[in-house]
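The records we work with from here on pair a chain with its fold. Taken together, the tokens spell out the fold as the letters spell out the chain. To see the layout at work, look at the sequence and tokens printed below.
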Amino acid sequence: MSGPTFSATHFDFPCATTVDVPHLRTKHEQKRVATAVVYCEGNFGAIDGKTANGLVRHSEKYRIISVIDSEQAGLDAGVVLGEESKSIPICRDLADALSHAGVLPDYFIFGMAPASGMLSSHERGLVLEAIDLGMNIVNGLHEFLNDDPVFQAASSAKNVKILDVRKPRPKKDLRLFSGRIAEVTCPRIAVLGTDCAIGKRTTATILTRALNDCGLKTVMIGTGQTCLIQGASYGVSLDAVPSQFCAGELEATIVEAFEGENPDVIIIEGQGSLSHPAYSTSSFILRGSCPDGVILQHAPGRIKRCDFNQMAMPLPDKEINLIQTFADTKVIGLTINHENMTEDEITAAITRYEYELGIPVTDALTRPHGRLVEMVRSAFPRLKSTVCAR
């Protein structure tokens, strides 16, 4: 990415403001939200830009004021994602983003999730520039900046915070699986997928909103860094937790949500894919949450697995069989990721999979959200007594 190098002396910003956000329906409600710029150079709208993509679609903790990606500068971030305008511009570089903001944003969020989980040398320099300007840093990578002497010194000198979202609690405080998940008496639904970066978090977020809108108090459990950055009240970044403690950490988080919120439904964000040899997180999610039901996300237009062109995508029926063999649960519905699909192809896929699989099928982004609600109600009849508000 090209652009001028600058220091704090080149800008004289007033303090950033915060704004109100809608009611979040939990006692951990956030009434004010800080401003943030999201860095996603060369990847916004793509698979490795999933953190930035997710923050543009939904953010409770931060008000996103711009995205940095020189390849799409000048466009609206919502439109690039194939949705309505979000009034979030894509900027050429950090200087452009700051010029657009007019005030110094509270946070600089690293919005990419590369497989390496590490910053490049250029990215390190950019984060240090943001610190020099007085911006707090949100880092979702496996590289913990608070452990780096250079970043420690820089953040201390400017009195800013670095949030290493993926960093787990100290090992002495990690929790083993205890069996207390049996005390959670409301339905627990995990949203899993046939691949990574396939829309599990987006579908889980939309489902949580839809159920709440229908009067069913629903809490979402985040299991990855993006959901935590978005502002999930309950969650743990499982891929950074030692494997011995993954099931226990998730179980304990779900129990905390149940006891703290007394919800009607708990939705658990999925990670990776149970059938994918590169990821083990799905197995920990099934073990730790012991879900009463699973919603499976699938992309009919995706031929090869993300980042693994030698691997063909699995068929939904094979993934369903694997999930139901691995865990004492039932897949209650299929949701479609419509990448590389026309409207007619989406409709045809929904019809075909409903016939072949014998379960409800919908697309969370292009179809009425009531279909997701009915998917859940059909599987858990005791929830049907609640009347949907819209």
